[in-house]
Amino acid sequence: xxxxxxxxxxxxxxxxxxxxxxxxxxxxxxQIIILGYVxxxxxRHVPVGIVNMAQGQAAGQMIQRxxxxxxxxxxxxxxxxxxxxxxxxxxxxxxxxxFRDALDQKRHILKYPEVQIxxxxxxxxxxxxxxxxxxxVIKNYILHDMEKLxxxxxxxxxxxxxxNPQLRSINYMGPGIVGFLLTIIxxxxxxxxxxxxxxxxxxxxxxxxxxxxxxxxxGKALPAALIGLLDMVIGLLVVVLWFGIPFRGSMxxxxxxxxxxxxxxxxxxxxxxxxSATTQxxxxxxxxxxxxxxxxxxxxxxxxxxxxxxRILADINPLRYLLxxxxxxxxxxxxxxxFWKDLLALGGIALTLMAVxxxxxxxxxxx
Amino acid sequence: xxxxEHVSKSFAAIKAVDDVTLDIQRAAITILTGADGAGKSxxxxxxxxxxxxxxxxxxxNGQDIGGNYSCLTSVCGYMPEKFSLYTDLSVEENxxxxxxxxxxxxxxxxxxxxxxLERTGMGPFRHRRAGALSGGMKQKLALxxxxxxxxxLIILDEPTTGVDPLSRIEFFTIIETLKNEGKTIxxxxxxxxxxxxxxxxxxxxxxxxxxxxxxxxxxxxFPARLFRILPRDNIFEAMAGIxxxxxxxxxxxxxxxxxxxxxxxxxxxxxxxPHLEMVEEKPTLEDMYIxxxxxx
Lengths: 367, 296
Description:
The complex is a heterodimer of chains A (367) and B (296).
Chain A: H1 2-16, H2 18-25, H3 27-38, E1 46-52, H4 57-68, E2 72-78, H5 84-90, E3 95-100, E4 114-119, H6 124-148, H7 169-200, H8 202-207, H9 213-242, H10 251-275, H11 279-295, H12 308-315, H13 318-332, H14 336-365
Chain B: E1 2-11, E2 14-24, E3 29-34, H1 40-48, E4 55-60, E5 63-64, H2 70-73, E6 76-79, H3 91-101, H4 106-120, H5 135-147, E7 153-156, H6 165-180, E8 184-189, H7 192-195, E9 200-205, E10 208-213, H8 215-220, E11 225-230, H9 235-244, E12 251-255, E13 258-263, H10 269-272, E14 277-281, H11 285-295
Parallel strand pairs in B: 3-8, 3-9, 6-7, 7-8
Antiparallel strand pairs in B: 1-2, 1-4, 4-5, 9-10, 11-13, 11-14, 12-13
């Protein structure tokens, strides 16, 4: 019962702060919508320059295909040689396509032109993807042309994309953003709660009350957990209803994984709160941790890309496992048989963090 | 009721409390007074277990508590120096919360709350947020929350610091009533006029108890005599004249139009400074504090 009143008190305190309420329940909706549009690995409207010095029809038809795709925006066209490097340096274009006639040994013009693709490699990711698309457009044109003449290739390969057939990056990012928001809300709310009691000296009053350590610990974590779960539901609704991301898995497993994750992240946040002397310190500590969690989670780039030595950090990062599980549940509709190992790892991290956090909490209270 | 025996506490190289032995008498007001950083708050925190003692023993009703602070906190209410209630909660919500965590039976809560609101005159402000209360009302609310559990021992750490004079008077009226109801009160204050209201006064300096006694006991055992000297002309010249007297053991200091002289030796001051008008006075608590403070 004492715990109930402690939790109730926490809720009253939170709900009295209107700005905080806005940030907790409206903020995530705004954040998901903005992040959903902004964090995208899809490429769109890449500015392209084209120099067509070829005389054959094929070059013109290839250029026409490039113009028609929404991936590229042809900003510059010329039929004479230009200073390609200068255009790339100025940033007017990200790619230069140079079409020249290909000649055989007798210097006869061949049917298909020679194509040189010059890319601005500064943004390596976009460049790689765009270069791949250029090659695809050109190869498809030639293949199509050969098929018309009955000269198809002796073999064919076709990639089939399962779980996200349109290759929408939001389908991959959306569930990740929900997991990330769960982390932000709960970590900031919890790491500030105990340290605020320290600053206000209300902790002393709690400590000499009949409340025991575990009750204070749970009383601090529970409100943030409930608010975090509510935010997660809001986030799920936004990504499903606004962005149309399919939810194929089990809601039960999603909440199970989220609860295990919450145990981990709340323990960590309480550890921050115990170690911090002021709210400002707690906020800095939380922000620093959040960045590490995010960068090491596979949110932006695959965890496999992380160098082996740093991968240890990724292996003990609870967000990494949550994101993997959420994405599997969301897009693949996977059940526990597919992600039990990740759930187990997450549970292990949660238990370790809880033990460390509770131990520190007890040590702090008994000082 | 409570006895601290040879209690010490250091924070790094700083000795906050140094071999303190203190008796807190039942149904009486014990007041600890001393400068900031004298160790008053640390003594209170050790008493309720918020700060661990380095050495010493605490006895409750003659029994060594032996590190089991819950037996002490179960009979005491502690009000920290800084206002430590939830500012976003209303007066009533604070009372409800503290009644709940102090496990006040549900059927008694409402009645107790009403009585406390009436006693402290906070009834009309029951729905006001604690953060929006005046300094005096905040302290009265803080006191009310600790009274919810009807503690035998009430520990108040500088409850009137920063509180307006009228609220201070009201606060002390409540304290007196509590004492008359049989409660044991131990509090600290930097104000010596307030300390005079204690049944037992404890002077503290640098973590050590300089003196502890009742006001009458302190007066009776005060080893110095106090004189008020009225200069005939210029007070500064008179002061310089007194200081120039060879072999004068006491201390003189100006206080408005007068010079106060604390005689600690056996000198016949009247003979040494015959040209000044002198009246012997009863020493105030302030005089006694200054005497012991300087002697140490």
